[in-house]
């Protein structure tokens, strides 16, 4: 069996199974015996260790009981192990072999006299690796443990000093600086440790810091103890001052300068990101690893380079820029070595980037890490383990995922509000430029379809009112678009004639800088209005002929391809299926629509979390919780992939059915305490409900259309949109009429949805009555009665009264819902009877 006290008390069998000792005092007895190092411990002292002043009635018997429990626990784990607890006068002793107790093994290794520095360093490293934490960590307040732990901690510190000197003899000065800085800070009066740190600093080419270290030690000794440094430390100080050759150890190399910083000079102004580079610099001061994340084309590289340039003075040993876009996973370390100018193997030192950069006061910029995220994460973790001097700034579409990482997410640029009239007044919503839509606009104006319908408005060339142009020019996305468009077309300027088109382009491209720059390059040939109207085919339109950018940045499609290619099959499936949602979706909706095939419903949540980490899925505000949405360009790309996979119809069906069920559930709770919550839910889902209704009408799915309209009639009335309710119900009746060549009433009878239609008509009639339009309300009530009558089992020949009622209802529907009336002009066989 093996026993550990260099950390919490631990017992393991020879086959590495943990052994449980159930009672606290039994574990305390074992620790007391182990602390004695195999020597007998008097029974009286064991009693004091276990019970202190609160002695049991019969101490000797109580101790024997605990010994018996300990023996039984050991024997249960490994038969015969009870003999390890031996009775030896004047008490008990623990008879384990020295190699079975980590403390005894540590002391044996630490005391070995290895003459060669390499062997000495290897043995000491093995000894120190036995430590799992403070000695006797779970008995820190017990007197016997305090004394034993203090002795072991002192031996541990001496071993670390010995190891430092062995590594100095091997020339590992720069790597040692990182290891010794924190240790010397925790033991500021330990002169041997401070001397090792001074020698490591001096051997790393940091003479001034070695002298500063000596001054700190001298001042502290004088202030706290009234003493001067000892002769060894004073002699080392003098040797450093005169740069004594005796300090030069064969194999130790002073820090060679890194390759000079060669940050590319920006060719254009950084637009719309005024305070962000300084924020990244501040993050670098607070954290040793900062990862700039965000979707493709958002400008991560540009921001990181600007931040690196501004932070240059804080890194006197240089800035190393490593472009990883074209690097294979097994070539990351070699790329860092080459960028830093470290010698190749066979030179003065090995081309190990961790060893070569350890302890450097330098900034390492790792750009475009997403396709080599695993090796980059391992390398960054190794850098963080070497010391506090080196800083790492990475750009990737997902976090590196290691301890100590500080994330700086980059969002697309803010875009203009959807309601441009708000530019002439106060802007609403969060941020300096307001929400994406006016607070008074109906919720549907946030949908993708509503934004796309702007093309008709733009063809008219409606000007932006008042001083809206001036305020529009201050929106960051517009600033970037106008700056790049003016560079491509010197005659271009933002004015009242093109402001609406420019605003629509910026919104439809989600403020994504790469997309805006590609679009701006087309302004000279297309003009803003045509460009906005053509964005439905954005991947054909947004192309660049620039030869100074990598292929992945020459088209919007290639930029999204760069993010798509590394995705696992489940991630691709969920991403393309999410694209059917308009205006975002909840996690529940994603699980309903994205599961299927090789993707289990239980897997969808984890996949979405990974897609959020990869910046392909964005988070959106929702009063009811978190919503997920895709940038419009990503959604367009994903819809193409959905069609390529042959899944469009099936996923759209799941989407439409889910939102019909949402509408029906809301209808069931339209009264009572849940009413307001469901109103808010329908507000949030307005774009998805509209897409489902349009999908039903497009496919002629009358049953789905009627489910949606009958369930949402109360909501439309509540929101004061009776006109929209009428049009939607008319479209549903028209959809019902087409496949059956019947009018809306006959179709309702065939489909068996007459009660739902009649209920919706009753609700609309109530809204008309409240509005004082009694005649219109009467016609709607008549239509409802006709629908109910038409739903009855038809007779061979309708009665004259029923025929007149049907005719009146048809007239009412034709007045209220023109779409249904037009669809119903293909008359049913029963209509001639109605006309008699």
What does this protein look like?
The chain has 836 residues and is mostly helical. Among the domains are: 2-98, Winged helix-like DNA-binding domain superfamily/Winged helix DNA-binding domain (Arc Repressor Mutant, subunit A); 173-245, Alpha Horseshoe (Serine Threonine Protein Phosphatase 5, Tetratricopeptide repeat), CATH 1.25.40.10; 276-409, Rossmann fold; 420-552, no CATH class; 700-836, no CATH class. The chain is 55% helix and 6% strand. Strands 7-8-9-6-10 form a five-stranded parallel β-sheet, with helices on both faces. The longest helix has 27 residues, at 143-169. The relative contact order is 0.04. Residues 1-96 bind DNA. One of its GO terms (molecular function) is ATP binding. It comes from Actinomadura sediminis. Pfam families: BTAD, HTH_77, Trans_reg_C.
| Main beta-sheet annotation | 5 strands, parallel
**N-to-C terminal Cα separation, in Å?**
105 Å
Query: Could you say which overall geometry the principal axes of the C-alpha atoms support?
Result: flat
Total number of helices:
40
Mean pLDDT: 79
Strand content: 5-15%
From the helix content, strand content and strand pairing, which structural class follows? mainly alpha
Please tally the β strands and state the result.
Answer: 12
Protein name: ATP-binding protein
GO molecular function, one term: ATP binding
Family: Belongs to the AfsR/DnrI/RedD regulatory family.
Keywords: ATP-binding, DNA-binding, Nucleotide-binding
